[in-house]
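Q: Two folds, back to back.
A: First:
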Amino acid sequence: MHIMSMRDGSYFPPEGGFRTFVLLWAFQSLAAFGFQITSFALTVWLTTGLYPGPEQKALLAAALSMVGLAFSLPSVLVAPLAGILVDRTDRKTVMFWANVGSGLVSLSLAVVLAMGALRLWIVVAAMVLYGLLQCLHTSAFDTSYAMLVRPSELPRANGMMQTVMSIAGILSPGIAAGLMALPGVLDKSPNQTWVAGLLARVPNGAVLPVAVDALVVFIAAGSLLFLRIPSPRASAEKGRPSLVADIREGMTFIGRRRGLLWLLATFAVINFCSAPAGVLRPMIVRDNLAGDYARLGLSYEGVLALMTSAGSIGGVIGGFAVTAWGGLRRKRVYGVLVPLVIVGLTQVVFGLSTGIYVSVGAIALISFLIPFANSHSQSIWQTVTPHEMQGRVFAVRRVAAQFTSPLGTALSGVLGAVDPGLAVALCGGVAAAVSLLQFGNRKVTTLEDDVPSPVSGEAAS
């Protein structure tokens, strides 16, 4: 366990820290890759297997909402405790066991699928576990790489971080769809090896993607055993405060900075409004775009995979663009607000579109812009928050910014039963309007001017 004292207020990343970060980033991308495969496979199972009929629109909307809520709500609820945990313990250990736990959940799902016993309540329970474990992993991950790279390298590192889910998203839909179709293809093959024959007898195509998820997550966990990742520790003289005191300290740090509060409020609205776009996307593809993809001779799974992959490619390009550029050096808040306004307006286009190309282009543009907003926001927070406080401060920040996402997910179950496309468009309009209003809010636009750089022993923001 490598815990570094921060008692003198100074800290220098270890020699070769950025190289370690790159290795950490690469192997943990495998974990993100695996979860995307499972998520896609389960979405297809729900949409085409459990509730395939048009008359089941309300049931499907409710199921998608329940699954999304099961994943996001636990993450928000346990974020404060997760933040305290990663401030008090070795962060690499937290990441390792979070990876192992996720792998075990995926392995269990694969077994249940192979037995033909998967039910909606099992998917919901699995998503709860995924949400809890990913919350722990994210809390440890987000605070670990700030210890590995120099402050001047943070925008570049954050740009790379924004590509993690996007890189996974590029390959995972196509691979998941291919793995799901593999048993049927092998079953029709005239020449079969014993392996092909065994795979051909898989009762549910979703078994293979979920099993692959378990494998790659276990590989990601194993990689951590060979990486040295330092963890900070507050001054020993202070003793160990209570959990309530830790949470209060994180809340106080943010509460004294009005600009940060307004920024959090903006993200709270954005997360509320973007949730329906994610939850209802399978329904929008199936219903709004059905005429267009039928005319082109495409399948539902193919269009959904195309849209997911296009969005992921946009995210990777955006992440690489931020990485190569390095981000804004000052007035980073504009690097947050400008992309958010465009994202909201593009969501309106996506919700109202009935054409595949326009819809795919809208998703790609949204995904391209999100890394710009997130990397600039993350850089602001990492710069102004002391390393030994980042766990609890980021946890409070995560709750404040993301507690609305489960609400938006729950609302999706109602909106999806009426008009999914119109609901997504209206939410996009609200997100764009709220982001645009912040340009006139001096507390936000002067956020970095009002916040000095951190000094010895004192948190500044």
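A: Second:
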Amino acid sequence: MAFTQVRDLELYYEIHGDGPPLLNISGTGGDLRRMPVDRSPLNAHFRTLSYDQRGLGQTSKPDGPYTMADYADDAASLIEAQGWSRCHVMGTSFGGMVALNLAVRHPRLIDRLVLCCTSPGGAVASYPLHELDDLDPVEALPVRFGLLDARWDPDATPPIPDLPQAFYDLLLARYTTAPDPHTAAGQRRQLLARAGHDVTADLPGIDIETLVCAGRYDELAPLTNAQCLVDAMPRARLAVFEGGHTFLFQDADAYPVIVAFLRGERGR
């Protein structure tokens, strides 16, 4: 648990585990105070670096607007601040968008790349989450959960198949609790940057061994988004898991497949 100066930020990060270096980039609204990264299955195999992105968590919150280039350059500067010449990169949801921009702008820093439940943007974009910001939280709640998993049923136990109830409760609290003004501003700036994400024209030039992971029932970043990435990126392959946008917590095969890929092992 530490801070480092990265570009215009006092950036908060944590490193857990041992092994080859891995940068783990979190999704929309990510805050390490809510994320048990110290218990990630990745830590048994890698030296895993996780961090709060600009405007969020314990990282500083400069005035906006923010751009996808900002998020990518922050990640690159953090890798270099660790003294790593290159590392594996795993990005989830918004983090996958950051990872794609990192691969476009700083390909020399990436060894292997994992993209989870994300999209290239442009005509093949994930759901425009910034539009939900204008809705009443209670009104937006069924939309948010329906996007996470097409099978969501508020009357079922659990409401999302195979998702632990404790994790569902955390999501429920997050969606219904108003953040403090500084965090709200950072989240809004992140969503607006996300709305401008588009690397579709750059995908054929990303010459990095890549695993694109998707949840079969994801409506936020549908399977078609993942297929578009695989079709356009020359060294990408697809892994589809039983789950939605939270398939990492729903399908027990997800982390073993990701670890095997990052270790260069043959598998699914």
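Q: And?
A: Helices lie at 68-81, 94-105, 137-148, 165-176, 181-195, 223-232, 247-250, 254-262.
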